[in-house]
Give the backbone structure.
Amino acid sequence: MACDRLCKEAEKGFPRMKTATSKVKKSKLIIESFQGENLKYVEWPATDKLQQIPIGSRNLDRCLDDLDFWIQGLIGCLVKCKSGQTYSLFDTKGLLRFGKKDMKHLERTQILTDPISEHEGKKWMTTLRLFIG
């Protein structure tokens, strides 16, 4: 069904689909080794749409002063405080909910991970260090 519609659109030159005009350019610095020619790449104009990262509501700075531990699970990460407060982070962008002091506190505390998924824990720590700067 979708394939048929695409074939019909292709025959007519895609009248319902607006595409951006592209430019093929040659790099002056990069030479393809197997052909010996300059690398060709395609450039499209910038879109008019604004891209934003959706961030949940911000937590108060220093809300992790009584941090107990943080652990990387199957889906995201869980931050647990000694006061009983927990924060669920589903992806690394969730770290932006915390203030700079809380991020530094998280950085000083090692994230708990399963040995099998240790690379996921490293991803959280790397992203945290990028956010801190």
Summary: Residues 45 and 65 are 47 Å apart (CA to CA). The chain has three helices and five strands.
